Amino acid sequence: MGKRIGARSPLFWDLAVNASQSLHKGDRVVTVGRLKVRDWSNDDRSGTSVEIEADSLGHDLYWGVTDYTKVARTILEDDPEEGEEEEL
After folding, report:
1. Can you give the pTM of this predicted structure?
2. What is d(CA 80, CA 37) in angstroms, rounded to the nearest whole number?
3. Where are the beta strands (DSSP E) in the chain?
4. Are 28 and 63 spatial neighbours (Cβ–Cβ below 8 Å)?
């Protein structure tokens, strides 16, 4: 097992909705994303903040089992990720 760290991981859009319905305080999770480490200081204090910009996350199955349910999504016609790129 790797080293365990505590880090904030702000979640957005569908990942945030699914996480709020699936994860509970104290659950062990695995997070895939980019680690952001920033030093900060103000008038009388300084420190380091650690955040993970999460692409995906889920329960750590080493410690238990989970029941997976796929969520149906509606793809918008304007979604630039779907379909072909426009030629200029």
Report:
1. 0.59
2. 31
3. 29-41, 46-59
4. yes
> In this structure, what token pair is assigned to residue 68?
């997976």
Return the structure tokens found at 39. 């030093």
Q: Please, what is the end-to-end C-alpha distance for the chain in angstroms?
A: 50
Count other Cβ atoms within 10 Å, centred on residue 54: 19
1-81 under CATH 3.40.50.300, yes or no? no
Q: Per-residue confidence of the chain (88 residues) as pLDDT tens digits?
A: 566 666 667 777 888 888 888 989 989 988 898 888 889 899 889 988 888 888 888 999 999 999 888 888 766 666 555 555 545 4
Q: Which of 58, 57, 62, 3 is nearest to 34 (CA)?
A: 57
**Boundaries of every domain in the chain:** 1-81
**DSSP-assigned beta bridge partners for residue 46:** 41
H/E stretch holding 11 reads none
**Predicted pLDDT of residue 79:** 54
